[in-house]
Amino acid sequence: MSDRSEWSLSAPRKLTFDAPVTALHVRVVGGTVNVVGTDTGPASLHLSEIEGPPLTVSLHNGVLSIAYEDLPWQGFLKLLDRKGWQRTAHVTLTVPTQTRAEVGTVHAAAVVSGLSGRTEVRGISGDSTLVGLTGEVRADTVSGSVEAQSLGGRLRFNSVSGELTVIDGTSPAVKADSISGNMVLDIAPTATSADLHLNTVSGGIAIRLPDPANVAVDAQTTSGQLSNAFDDLTVDGSPWGGPWGAWACPGGTGGKITGTLGTVCGRLKATSISGAIAVLRRPPADEGAPPGEPTGSDGPPEPAVPRQHEPSDPPQASPSDKKVL
Question: By C-alpha distance, which of 173, 37, 75 is closest to 185?
Fold first, then answer.
């Protein structure tokens, strides 16, 4: 490979970087970005497809950058999706697991996996998938969704209308804020002291906790609906109870779920203005299930919106809801 530290890529190409890589900066419009952490071999780049202006690739002082010159990192989310941008790039990057990564996308999908360094993802309309990251993670989106599986580090999420889905979460802390985006969190049994703070304006929130769980719960909605699957928690103003779980405010007049589960060493604080909030029970662990796979026969929970029922009937999930209890 050439000793040059900068390349201009206007056609598909593969590059291998002999110099050490400690940080990764990616900014693309359209297409896909796939970042894989590995402990074997040098860092590499595979540009399989590109349309539009060339991508600039540079390696300087351990920082590997792949970006368009007119797409800065500062103020990235203020750029919005310019309709005049006619460009696409499909990029796969292999870097050392300890690499710190910054990935910014406009109308492009991003997948980041296997890193232990700090990861930051910014997206405007593209979706992001984060798998097996053990370092701190920050994800900021406008309308793109974020799906995270088996995260081991702290997670910070901000969005306007994008959704957050966490599967088999083991993060010690999650801080998530959105305006209208839904939040769905499936907490693994090994997350014994998780500190969860979730806040939306109109988005729904669903949290599936392991049973037994060790957490103090404080979930409130001003005008949304509530559901709860734990007998040890209290739903203020609930006309429902029993093994179906306690249901509050079927007419959407607000309420709160409070109480403690087990020996308190974790905390759940969930707040919404008009969105529904559901505190659900995770199915028992399946013996022999592969590590990182959600347990039980059900998938991750979805924010439930209970329908109005007669008092003699147990509450039923709407057709769009998955069976999670």
Answer: 173
